[in-house]
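ping. complex inputs:
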Amino acid sequence: MMRTDATHKLLERKRERGLTFEAIAKALGRHKVWVTAAIMGQATMSAEEAQKTVAFLGLGADVAAALQEIPSKGSVGQTVPVDPLIYRFHEITQVYGTTIKAIIHEMFGDGIMSAIDFELDIQKKEDPKGDRVVITMNGKFLPYKKW
Amino acid sequence: MMRTDATHKLLERKRERGLTFEAIAKALGRHKVWVTAAIMGQATMSAEEAQKTVAFLGLGADVAAALQEIPSKGSVGQTVPVDPLIYRFHEITQVYGTTIKAIIHEMFGDGIMSAIDFELDIQKKEDPKGDRVVITMNGKFLPYKKW
Amino acid sequence: MMRTDATHKLLERKRERGLTFEAIAKALGRHKVWVTAAIMGQATMSAEEAQKTVAFLGLGADVAAALQEIPSKGSVGQTVPVDPLIYRFHEITQVYGTTIKAIIHEMFGDGIMSAIDFELDIQKKEDPKGDRVVITMNGKFLPYKKW
Amino acid sequence: MMRTDATHKLLERKRERGLTFEAIAKALGRHKVWVTAAIMGQATMSAEEAQKTVAFLGLGADVAAALQEIPSKGSVGQTVPVDPLIYRFHEITQVYGTTIKAIIHEMFGDGIMSAIDFELDIQKKEDPKGDRVVITMNGKFLPYKKW
Amino acid sequence: MMRTDATHKLLERKRERGLTFEAIAKALGRHKVWVTAAIMGQATMSAEEAQKTVAFLGLGADVAAALQEIPSKGSVGQTVPVDPLIYRFHEITQVYGTTIKAIIHEMFGDGIMSAIDFELDIQKKEDPKGDRVVITMNGKFLPYKKW
Amino acid sequence: MMRTDATHKLLERKRERGLTFEAIAKALGRHKVWVTAAIMGQATMSAEEAQKTVAFLGLGADVAAALQEIPSKGSVGQTVPVDPLIYRFHEITQVYGTTIKAIIHEMFGDGIMSAIDFELDIQKKEDPKGDRVVITMNGKFLPYKKW
Amino acid sequence: MMRTDATHKLLERKRERGLTFEAIAKALGRHKVWVTAAIMGQATMSAEEAQKTVAFLGLGADVAAALQEIPSKGSVGQTVPVDPLIYRFHEITQVYGTTIKAIIHEMFGDGIMSAIDFELDIQKKEDPKGDRVVITMNGKFLPYKKW
Amino acid sequence: MMRTDATHKLLERKRERGLTFEAIAKALGRHKVWVTAAIMGQATMSAEEAQKTVAFLGLGADVAAALQEIPSKGSVGQTVPVDPLIYRFHEITQVYGTTIKAIIHEMFGDGIMSAIDFELDIQKKEDPKGDRVVITMNGKFLPYKKW
Amino acid sequence: MMRTDATHKLLERKRERGLTFEAIAKALGRHKVWVTAAIMGQATMSAEEAQKTVAFLGLGADVAAALQEIPSKGSVGQTVPVDPLIYRFHEITQVYGTTIKAIIHEMFGDGIMSAIDFELDIQKKEDPKGDRVVITMNGKFLPYKKW
Amino acid sequence: MMRTDATHKLLERKRERGLTFEAIAKALGRHKVWVTAAIMGQATMSAEEAQKTVAFLGLGADVAAALQEIPSKGSVGQTVPVDPLIYRFHEITQVYGTTIKAIIHEMFGDGIMSAIDFELDIQKKEDPKGDRVVITMNGKFLPYKKW
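pong. complex structure:
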């Protein structure tokens, strides 16, 4: 079974059962962002995690096998995303990219924030003027090696 | 004076005086990320803010005027950034874009996180296994209007 | 059912029954532009709206379910549209983009017109020299936040 | 004098004198959107209009000559605009393009809205929940010719 | 029936019956270029035209219905055409584009040649040194509106 | 002297003297489209033609030399032209490309219309409903060689 | 039958029978490069040539019909070819393009080498230091027409 | 001195002295295609070759030094060349690319024709029906290594 | 059988049997990188190698035939790879490309490292601070030929 | 001083003095690949390293300051490099990308080879059949974090 077929099956079943990503994540004992990424084909589950996921959703061993395959990552399918929600993150990179670079270099020296040793959290902050999305990225600083 | 010339002058002077963005931000009484963005030509200062900035750095009225011009935004100059630090943010959008979309829709319904009514913070979290970059994005949720 | 399949089914049925978007919109009690956008897979219906739509067109619950899914937006499928009608809007952005930017900044300061808290209307204005298309875009002004 | 040099000179002088596009438009007796487009190098002035413009701004005959040259149009310089304000119009074309096409065809038949026999207006609509930008596009419907 | 399927069916039947576009056009009483464009999915037939076309070719009502649908135009499917015959027209635009612009502006002022109120004719001019293709484009001049 | 500098000088002088391309062409005894193409850097003049051109416009031997250089052709500088007048020709290729291909093949067999052994004419056809631009392309048919 | 299907069938049969392009070309009495191009969907066979080809390979009349259709040419499917063998020809154009242009203009004047009235030959030249591929392109020089 | 400046100087001097590439090549004792490539900044001269070149053209030691620098190769500056002469070579790759690949593999097995251990020759073949350009590419066959 | 179908079958069977590329390579008596490349459709097996491969994996003669076909190479399917692991190699080319060029030219003169007469090895180097990937590329230096 | 100006000055001086990158690296006590990368503007020197570099080359403090600035990395300036030496590395990524991904995942699990905690070495291996370039990349394996 192809990874994209597994994603389709997982999302379809989730819809049929009226489940949330949060509920699946709770059943699995992992953060909902990571679990969603794994379902979307962007992260790799252990055998046990895959087993729990398909058990919870009532899916078969082929889906569990697919979830353990290391996927070819990249979920958006366009260089510049067209979907407005996803585009805003492209815009943040375009507008604030040099600012983030300047600040990280000032604070840490030459290097990057890892997107691999990396966690992503999304929270809702209620606000009478309109609720706010709070996204936290936490990535290891990797200094450039000299040799 | 063109906005890019003002940016060059500001960065040159900052370097000559051995200043940090943090120091400039403190003198100005604003967050260092926003101040850096303004210096990079991505945000607009008020007359008072521009005045304080050039006074602190010992620059002229022409730079202050440029800082009050609403800039044509976009700092990266490439659709897919080549600089490794900035590229990682492009990668995060490519890999986690559909995940972020799914989670925000699950938490908030149809709409987006604003990149305008938006704040960005960058912190260093010390860690014996390697310090971590913690980036917090805080944007108003804008629900799609129906009509 | 995929969102694009639902769009195909809806358009096919509309054609078979010789209906207009306006008639569907009237049955639904919403503006015809918004209803067309929802049918085209660019907006999300409530359960009640989806129910009314499929009842009016004689379609099934699977189409209604699809209409309530938050879609991955973007209808054109090309960066520069080739269809002449759609291209003219690309041309307007290319030719008048800096003009619109200058005027909005003069009238409102630094910020943008929202494309989310946003309405679009299309009217016909009869004219003996050739009828005219009148498009009105009404979007909330979002000032850039400082922090 | 190149058209882009004339644009630079006009904008510089406008800034020095603290003028608005509206004030220049009033002096010229034309709509401020069209006058801004002409200054931005996207429309062509008559000799009289160019004369009035340079007289009002205290500029020379070379600028007046440039304003009468038919320009090579296109102000944005990127296929997908990066500036957030201009991008939102690209997004509207991407998201609502097929909707606008469907509605115009339903109302007018096969053809397009002209971007040449075309007017553009920008208004501010005050609103306690946040002022709104109202943009009106008024273009002649051009039916496809059969032969 | 999708428009592209109708095109396939029409071309297949034309081939089977050994017909020319000219013969179909004659049966329909319209110019062969326009009729070919309609078959290729680039123009819209009236009910009567579609009826005559399918009757002449012995095809069904579903093809006739498709021919009356206003198509999403654009036949080439590549920004820079690779087919050598079609590429030559791209080359003419690239090489002679600024020349055509200069001459039309000299003869007509600021405006464009319409590609909508537009006719295209293709003739063979016999020549002992090699026959010549003579293409005539006839489009309404549309002057830019001022407002 | 670079070819683009020669083009600039020629256009500047033409403007200063209030000349038309037609007048220059008449002085040279060649068609105005070809002469404009040569001035725009898309065709090569003989020594005599270049001499006559600079003599008529009062320019120097360096311009005459540049006009005799075989240029690197391509006047538009963008794959998809943004200028609305030039774009319409791109649109014609996109919309009518497969139609033109089908008709030329039906009339001539496999081969192309040359864009080298090629002439281009532009005429104004007066019309009370709006003057029309009539463009005639006349290119040798080149049959594909078999071997 | 689509042209690409015919190509698939022809290549499959060739493989099954262990034939070479050279053998097919010999049976057909034409050069192996041209015959391969026709099989690859880049050239058009006469009825007799198509007949001989399918007879030799034991294929049906539908393949013969497809071989007589004038194809939409372009075999590579990428602007910059990724296959290393094909890429080397792209590289030759990129590296030696201006050299070839300079030499052809020096030898022939302004014009091009035709890619239509054109033959291509490929030979093996044995060499103890490694055999060599010798490709000969033979195209008619087409001088730019003046008018 | 930058390599591009050296190219400019060499071409300018060649023009002033009315020399051909062939004459320069003769003075140098090398093939005119290679010498032109070196002048165009696509090949590297030895000290002696560079010396002879500048002596023949009356240029200085800085040009000779530049000719000995290994250049960053690539002369065309566009992925798809716009100049019609150079484009025809791109077209040959696009149309005949898979044919050339099939024939070379049939004759030599898996591997490529080197574009490095490679010679290029351009000849004129006189023909009463129009002279022909004959280009010969001679590159070492490099078989793919297995390991 | 298409090459991509063979790749799918091979990978599926490998997964079902829980085999590693290393195990397949051992059975075949070749290096695991080369064997993986052949399975991925980037290298060509001899009849004997293909036979051994399908025998080891229990697949049919059609897969063996496909493995002997010379493939159209290029495995990534995107100009800029999105998968983070593959992207890092693109990044290395972008960041260190000019450095590698300068060093190879300093050590070897004008020429390239062959990617055809080329071997690739991947090793794991254990390290308490985190294991390291060691990739060795070994390609023949090909000096540019002069002629 | 801009980083690119420093690079120009450093390369010019190196040329004038007939130095190699190896000699500069020796003076500096660092690996020649890293030193070349720093000179090319892709790595950041410490104050002491920059000091030694300019002292060795007889350049000023402004160059030393530039060498300590963290650069905006990316040396190639094109998505697909045109220079044949650099292109071969792009080709290796395109052809062997999925192979490298499969092998690294088999050996290490899900994660990437770092291009930051990374060393690059280039050696010459003499060989009577032609010397070989041996490139070794040594990067830390970074496993994907789960959370």
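The mean pLDDT of chain I is 96.
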